[in-house]
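S., here's the first fold you wanted:
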Amino acid sequence: MVLKVGITGGIGSGKSTVAKIFGLLGIPVFYADDAAKKLMNEDEHLKAKIIGAFGTDSYRNGTLNRPFIAEKVFNNPAQLTLLNSIVHPATIANADKWMQQQTAPYAIKEAALIFESGAEKWLDKVIGVFAPAPLRIQRVMQRDGITEQEVTARLNKQMNEDDKMHLCDYIINNDEQELLIPQVLKLDAILREEAGSKSKRLKAES
């Protein structure tokens, strides 16, 4: 069975960049945000739950009405929690099914909310991608064309970055001081060894 690995980090940390480097090494990557968007548009059971919670305006011509949903959950923690309680279990189940289909030594799930959604329970290891807050703010300002205040407001809604990193098994520094590729290559070797150990253990138990 494939070793299940998560990659997480706060907004602007560069977790997607790190995941893409693993992908270049031949490691399959599941992007949770992309999968969630696809499921919300294609999974009829999930669509019915979202309509039940937020009303028929949640969809237009069968497609998720993103501005409507965004308006519902923006600055409304209770509504955001409700949406996450509907979408997260479906995404976790989809990721788990995908993981079981992989044949590489290990596979990666890239997600911002691994610990917040409880997805770590289904993973063997979690990698945290860390970058200092000022650098993360600068990156998001440039990427999204928004103000520092807007980025800070997003950061303040996320789990504390230090707390998140403490929960991870491995840390990759994306601070533009330490090169990313050598860190990924070193971790790739460790994870391949971990995958081999898991395989041997499961064979011994069967």
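And the second, which I think is the more interesting of the pair:
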Amino acid sequence: MKTILITGCSSGYGLETARHFHAQGWNVIATMRTPRADVLPAAERLRVLPLDVTRPDSIAAAIEAAGPIDVLVNNAGLGLFGAFEATPMATVREIFETNTFGMMAMAQAVLPQFRSRRAGLVINVTSTVTMAPMPLVAAYTASKTAIQGFSTSLALELAPFDVRVKLVEPGYGPGTRFTANGTERMQGLIPEAYAPFAQAIFAALGNPAAVTTAADVAETVWRAANDASGQLRYPAGADAVARAVNDRPV
């Protein structure tokens, strides 16, 4: 029976992915900054651990408590909408600490056990903003694009040890807490000069042609985890698949 560790399970993609793998019979270690029994009640083959991916001591404690794992899903992330001109560099650094450095730190923490066993899989959840440009998410896009390049190189680096790396690329998910979790962080990031432009963007986002659901991402992570091929990228959601077809062969 395989064991998967998933970061960012308090809501959205991570929560649904934890539920999906548990339903499929896997051992699931669901992590979140502040564990909540009302989000993931105790169950056989399911453990909830505290984890803040921006803190080395928290990462070390979680990895030790988890024990051997087969798959790491780096899902924890922060959202950010706003004009880059108005975004404090402290906020940019906060986004990178979780979305980029947090993912890298988690991967680095599990690689010794994967390499020694010559088995293991790292799945990094990024975004389709890395495929096609989107306004008002410059810092967020940069944080996710960095992980795209990181993962592509890391996959080649780990191949001699039979350790795999994969990317899951969700599309736009208005049903998640992406924006709700960052409401305070985004205050004041749309200056008056940008307001008309931003309103048009938000209007379009409010009426999307296709969207990505948490279930779409969970099912795509499941497919990536069980795919023995050399495929690196897995778009998740109807809009992501459409964008990937236009961007490159899937």
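Why I say that: The first helix runs from residue 12 to 23. Residues 3-247 form a domain with the Rossmann fold fold (CATH 3.40.50.720).

Talk tomorrow,
H.
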